[in-house]
């Protein structure tokens, strides 16, 4: 059985630039580097940067992204630091909780978000998405996907 998210690996085109972005601007801890990669971390998150010169630096058109948790008190100063560094925003916040959607130097879609799954589900109980079903009873059987 799966027990959690193990790590994220992001393909990058310039390792030094990406390490500087994640370590200095986002303030992840730098744990290791090697010729073609680096490990950085936050409590509960292991991030691997892997050099891939063939990576397309343009962001994909889909909504796939990686979100980091941020406290409400830290949200505005953090966003202001990113904006003053010229970090590009890729989407406006349209959901519960304060969020800022931005790109890393290789176009990976990132988000900082205030809140968690519980706060999101509480907001959805007040204003559910179209066709939404909330499963408070954990005895619901998994769907057959065949």
UniProtKB/TrEMBL annotation:
Keywords: Transferase. CDD domains: FosA. It is an enzyme of class 2 (transferase). Its EC number is 2.5.1.18. PROSITE patterns: VOC. Pfam families: Glyoxalase. One of its GO terms (molecular function) is glutathione transferase activity. InterPro entries: Glyas_Bleomycin-R_OHBP_Dase (IPR029068), Glyas_Fos-R_dOase_dom (IPR004360), GlyoxalaseI/FosfomycinResist (IPR050383), VOC_core (IPR037523). Residues 4-115 form the VOC domain. PANTHER family: GLYOXALASE DOMAIN-CONTAINING PROTEIN 5 (PTHR21366:SF14), GLYOXALASE FAMILY PROTEIN (PTHR21366). This is Fosfomycin resistance glutathione transferase. It comes from Pseudomonas nunensis. The lineage of its organism: Bacteria, Pseudomonadati, Pseudomonadota, Gammaproteobacteria, Pseudomonadales.
